[in-house]
Amino acid sequence: MKSEYLRITKLLVFYALFMVPSLAFAGEGDEFCYKADLESEGLVVGVVKLTGTDNKYTLEVEIEDFPQSGDFEVRLFKDYYSDFLAAVITVDENGDGKAVFQIPYPDPDFKVIIGDSVVSGEWVECEMPTKPVQAKITPSVLNLRSNGKYVTVKVSYPFGDETPMYIVIVVNGETIEPSMVSVSSNHIILKFSRTALQENCDIGDNTIIIAFKLGELDVELSETIKVIYEGEKMEQVQAKQKTKKGNSKLKSNNGKSFGKKTNKK
């Protein structure tokens, strides 16, 4: 009796894994990658790849050496009750085309149909594409007449890799440390003093170095930030400041030279 119970349990588990797609594949929130060949009349004409990360499901379709050119509908077919039009792919005169778009399906339990003749084959697991470590500065244009308090730097890195540490920015040889740091699973948000950055920047384009350690590696990424003074050219502003300082000194000297009464004998 016990052995019969175990046999039935194993059969149920097997059925759940291979007959119910939502249990057979990665669940929501997990990172995954599946790919399948695109076939037309027995020939492989491209590849389709399904990736999932951060609850976003991305379908990448690539066609090569296709005998036709033009715009073709990309449909996701599960059954006759769920034929989903995902997007349109454009194939150029060389027979090549590529499209990337978001879809609502987290599991590769559908066929990709392009036009009237291209159908995806069997899905197999693949490695997640490696994303390079990237940095982005916001805003990318600093207006000296604005009163913002911080400049934001976002450092993105591949999921599961070492977390970047000791992040600073360097501009014109001056190092600025962050005022605030927020760490997520695959990126870090840093806030830097806008005043400190502006004081070390020149009017126009400035190269900002984002320097940090990633494991044992010293990493430096560069971004460009533009500094402007909207309304007046900076040269005019600096000239006015010099004139104002000169006039204040002249008035002070005048007070000393001619502000006193003299007694004539």
Structure, described:
There is one protein chain. The chain folds into 2 domains: 24-125, Immunoglobulin-like (Sandwich), CATH 2.60.40.200; 134-228, Immunoglobulins (Immunoglobulin-like), CATH 2.60.40.10. Helices cover 20% and strands 45% of the residues. The protein is built from 4 helices and 18 strands. It has helices at 2-19, 21-24, 194-199, 234-258, and strands at 32-40, 43-53, 56-63, 70-77, 83-91, 97-103, 111-114, 118-120, 124-125, 134-138, 141-143, 150-156, 165-171, 174-176, 180-183, 187-193, 204-214, 217-228. The chain is elongated. The relative contact order is 0.11. The model is unreliable at 5-28 and 248-265 (pLDDT under 50).
Key features of this structure:
single chain; 265 residues; alpha+beta; Immunoglobulin-like; 2 domains; 9-stranded antiparallel beta sheet; 5-stranded mixed beta sheet; 4 helices
